[in-house]
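Researcher: Structure prediction, please.
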Amino acid sequence: VQLQASGGGLVQPGDSLRLSCAASGSTLGINGMGWYRQVLGKQREMVARISRGGSSNYGDSVKGRFTISRDNAKNTVTLQMNGLKPEDTAVYYCCAFWGSTTYWGQGTQVTVSS
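Model: Predicted structure follows.
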């Protein structure tokens, strides 16, 4: 499974940004998909995850601001980020859960700064 993420960038506090991730390869075995983020020197943290059936869960710091969605037919997962804060600045990674294996995309930088 290969994952290609896009949509990062530099935005101001309060702005919105949408991240997209497309999976290719052996996609039939993908169950959950999700987004994690990491700041240099810190552990990678879960942002949002969504099951194949559409059930989702979010990290406490993004609840009410971020929305995850997926299109199973297109093998894509999207993260809509609203009300961005400087503390949302990080490298965002999409991932796909395939059995007991987690596949990771290459990461996309999101910077929130005035």
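Model: The mean pLDDT is 95.
Researcher: Thanks, that helps.
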